[in-house]
């Protein structure tokens, strides 16, 4: 068998290419041959591999009721293989032919993906067995030994490639490396992990994770703004073969394996491959009401049939319209572990020349002239939002990202759209990739009705600024109701903030034809800046905005401050402060204004790391010019104190005390304390029902340290009102 296999391998070998030593590694499906005996040189006669440690069996604990799938929230996948999420521990057991002796036996694990595995690309991962597992980094540690078996705890990297890995156990002998046979039962799928803080798709709310990752049905809102209709859609991300079909999409797009740990890249690739234009992708669109040789878009009830048909036939599935593309895309994202939701934008603009206005041309009688009118308004348009950090953008633009697989316009030469930061769209910062101007136009265009006179002059009859994108909705978390999210995309129609965002978008290059085209002349004679006062969590603080008018003119500035609570990764959770005021700018002088931020405004929504992001924008009323600034800031979080009593000697009793004083103006409820110290004590937790304000909690723990040397004790405190409270202490454990 292996002979023919090798011959086939030879035949399949790509032609030599002067530009790269190895061909592209862009298929999860293809494999390389891994030698079972990798000799170091000549093998002496009398060498018998059976004299060395041998693997008899490997247990993957891959049943839905077993520990791995339970802990990794993958027990719903109808798939017999092990499925884990990255950056989180999982267990396997190896049975050897005799007891394992760490002094003399040396073995390691190898995870491989694709046809040309390379260590520096993350497609070949050797894992040595060590004593310490670092969170979010590859490693393995023996947790149990019994007779001929060992139990391993394995940690995968929080940035690891997403896909199906092949596992080998390798054993070192003096003459070569012995490996287990290729065994597909040991294949391991690794997915994104919204439960892991180091993962780029980390989502902090368990109810949201259950909805946006684990819910396999959803609702599509359609109809029009005056008559909203809804229908259910089965995403079916856990059904048989759907995971393989989703991984196949990335192979189909020839996406380099080394990029498959990055949700930004995966979304961009998927938004192209889910439509059939330019790459024979999954769904062929049709909007002309003739659906010969296919299924009418409205007939589909879910994504599973579409994905499985494509996976087996490799031909585009006919037909889809926007909600079908969005439904399939949602399945793809949730299946791989990226939190996702389906969005409907009512009265959605499809602006052909991206000039932020939909030009509707009228004839002499005032009727629409179809020859001249190229732009269109969709009753509704569905797209998706995917949740992720955006390390490629400034802080504050992570969180929900618009991705759209419906083929409307090309982006970098292919029909695709996104990911575009919803926060960037709201604030008009459309300079940030990808395709933000297009999405901004979909929700913000003006409708301009104009008529051409006989002599060729154009007369504007009417400008409707509120027609486009008046309502943007998605399914509510944990129910079938409708959640309006228009405010995530735009400020109140007609508000100062909304016009400021528009002017910001225009400043960043969104074309907006004014009636007489004016060039961009920034306001150079006024400077604006702001400072945020350093503050401890739970106290009030102020933001000071300073204007310096360097001119001899008297100006007034309409100023707007937006305070947002953000994750430490820069992802915005919500806006907790809005404040507008008018500043008078006397000639050749400075003026400052303070905005007080009260603890009551931010405490209820505060996140883990107590981080804020402020936007300040000002419009000089006399000139219409915009000044803009943004800053991220973090509050000081109180810490835990750890103390030890008694002598610290291995094998003897010692006592550890954890202390914490509640600094907030409220009682903390359901507080969990956690203490651990590798080699000193096993992880222990303690619940406290209440910690009143200003009171101090003391927790004393007795333990017997096992290993001498410098050790670290780590404690954390967690409750709804307060997170990321830590303390640590280095302790020197003496030899007995």
TrEMBL record:
What's in the keyword line of the UniProt record? Acetylation, Acyltransferase, Blood coagulation, Calcium, Cytoplasm, Hemostasis, Metal-binding, Secreted, Transferase, Zymogen
Region of interest: Disordered: 1-29
Q: Which domain of life is it from?
A: Eukaryota
The UniProt record lists the Transglutaminase-like domain at 314-407
Give the annotated active site. Answer: 322, 381, 404
Q: EC number(s) of the enzyme?
A: 2.3.2.13
Q: What is the annotated localization of this protein?
A: Cytoplasm; Secreted
Q: Where primarily located?
A: cytoplasm
Report the InterPro entries cross-referenced here: Ig-like_fold, Ig_E-set, Papain-like_cys_pep_sf, Transglutaminase, Transglutaminase-like, Transglutaminase-like_sf, Transglutaminase_animal, Transglutaminase_AS
Q: What class of enzyme is it?
A: transferase
Q: Name one GO cellular component term.
A: extracellular region
Q: How is the cofactor bound?
A: Binds 1 Ca(2+) ion per subunit.
Q: GO terms for molecular function, please?
A: metal ion binding; protein-glutamine gamma-glutamyltransferase activity
Extract the PANTHER family matched here. COAGULATION FACTOR XIII A CHAIN (PTHR11590:SF42), PROTEIN-GLUTAMINE GAMMA-GLUTAMYLTRANSFERASE (PTHR11590)
- What task does this protein carry out? Factor XIII is activated by thrombin and calcium ion to a transglutaminase that catalyzes the formation of gamma-glutamyl-epsilon-lysine cross-links between fibrin chains, thus stabilizing the fibrin clot. Also cross-link alpha-2-plasmin inhibitor, or fibronectin, to the alpha chains of fibrin.
| Sequence similarity | Belongs to the transglutaminase superfamily. Transglutaminase family.
* Quaternary state and interactors: Tetramer of two A chains (F13A1) and two B (F13B) chains.
Provide the protein name.
Coagulation factor XIII A chain
What organism, scientifically named, is this protein from? Aegotheles bennettii
List the gene name: F13a1
């Amino acid at each position: 068998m292996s002979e023919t296999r090798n011959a086939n391998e030879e035949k399949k070998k790509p032609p030599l290419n002067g530009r790269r030593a190895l061909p592209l590694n862009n298929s999860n499906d293809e494999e390389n041959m891994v030698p079972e005996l990798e000799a170091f040189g000549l093998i002496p006669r009398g060498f018998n591999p059976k004299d060395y440690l041998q693997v008899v069996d490997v247990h993957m604990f891959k049943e839905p009721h077993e520990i791995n799938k339970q802990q990794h929230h993958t027990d719903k996948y109808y798939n017999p293989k092990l499925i884990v999420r990255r950056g989180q521990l999982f267990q396997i057991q190896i049975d050897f032919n005799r007891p394992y002796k760490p002094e003399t036996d040396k073995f390691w694990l190898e995870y491989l993906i694709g046809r040309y595995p390379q260590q520096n690309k993350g497609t070949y991962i050797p894992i040595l067995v060590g004593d310490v597992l670092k969170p979010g980094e590859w490693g393995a540690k023996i947790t149990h030994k019994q007779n001929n078996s060992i139990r391993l705890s394995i940690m995968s990297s929080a940035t690891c490639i997403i896909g199906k890995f092949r596992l080998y156990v390798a054993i070192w002998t003096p003459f070569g490396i012995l490996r287990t046979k290729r065994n597909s039962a040991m294949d391991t799928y690794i997915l994104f992990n919204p439960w892991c803080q180091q993962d780029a798709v980390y989502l902090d709310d368990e109810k949201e994770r259950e909805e946006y990752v684990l819910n396999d049905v959803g609702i599509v809102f359609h109809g029009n703004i005056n008559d909203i209709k809804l229908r259910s859609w089965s995403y079916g991300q856990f059904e048989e073969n759907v995971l393989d079909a989703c991984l196949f999409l990335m192979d189909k797009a020839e996406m380099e394996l080394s990029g498959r740990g990055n949700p930004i890249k995966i979304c961009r690739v998927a938004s192209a491959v889910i439509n059939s234009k330019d790459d024979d992708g999954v769904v062929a669109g049709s909007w002309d009401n003739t659906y010969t040789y296919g299924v009418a878009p409205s007939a589909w009830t879910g994504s599973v049939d579409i994905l499985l048909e494509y996976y087996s036939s490799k031909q585009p599935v006919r037909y889809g319209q926007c909600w079908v593309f969005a439904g399939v895309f949602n399945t793809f994202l949730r299946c791989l572990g990226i939190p996702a939701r389906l969005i409907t934008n009512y009265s959605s603009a499809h602006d052909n020349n991206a000039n932020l206005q939909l030009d509707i041309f009228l004839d002499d009688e005032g009727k629409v002239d179809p020859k001249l009118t190229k732009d269109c308004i969709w009753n509704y348009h569905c797209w998706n939002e995917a949740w992720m950090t955006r390390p490629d953008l400034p802080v504050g633009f992570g969180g929900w990202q618009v991705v759209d697989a419906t083929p409307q316009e090309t982006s970098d030469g292919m029909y695709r759209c996104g990911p575009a930061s919803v926060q960037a769209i709201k604030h008009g910062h459309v300079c940030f990739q990808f395709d933000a101007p297009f999405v901004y136009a979909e929700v913000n265009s003006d409708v301009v009705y104009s008529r051409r006179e006989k002599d060729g002059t154009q007369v504007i009859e009417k400008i409707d600024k509120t027609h486009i994108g008046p309502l943007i909705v998605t399914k509510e978390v944990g129910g079938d109701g409708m959640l309006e999210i228009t405010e995530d995309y735009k400020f109140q129609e007609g508000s100062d903030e909304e016009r400021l965002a528009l002017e910001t978008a225009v400043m960043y290059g969104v074309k907006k034809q004014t009636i007489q085209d004016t060039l961009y002349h920034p306001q150079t004679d006024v400077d604006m800046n702001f400072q945020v006062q350093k503050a401890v969590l739970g106290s009030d603080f102020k933001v000071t905005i300073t204007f310096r008018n360097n001119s001899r003119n008297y100006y007034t500035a309409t100023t707007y401050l937006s305070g947002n609570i953000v994750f430490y990764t820069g992802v915005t959770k919500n806006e907790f402060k809005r404040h507008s005021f008018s500043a008078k700018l006397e000639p050749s002088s400075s003026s400052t204004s303070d905005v007080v931020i009260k603890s009551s405004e931010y405490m209820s929504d505060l996140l883990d790391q107590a981080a804020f992001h402020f936007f300040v924008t000002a419009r000089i009323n006399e000139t219409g010019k915009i000044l803009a600034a943004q800053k991220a800031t973090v509050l000081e979080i109180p810490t835990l104190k750890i103390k030890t009593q008694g002598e610290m000697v291995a094998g003897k009793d010692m006592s550890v005390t954890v202390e914490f004083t509640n600094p907030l103006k409220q009682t903390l409820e359901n507080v969990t304390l956690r203490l651990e110290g590798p080699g000193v004590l096993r992880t222990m937790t303690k619940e406290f029902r209440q910690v009143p304000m200003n009171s101090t909690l003391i927790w004393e723990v007795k333990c017997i340290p096992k290993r001498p040397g410098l050790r670290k004790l780590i404690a954390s405190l967690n409750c709804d009102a307060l997170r990321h409270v830590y303390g640590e202490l280095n302790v020197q454990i003496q030899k007995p």
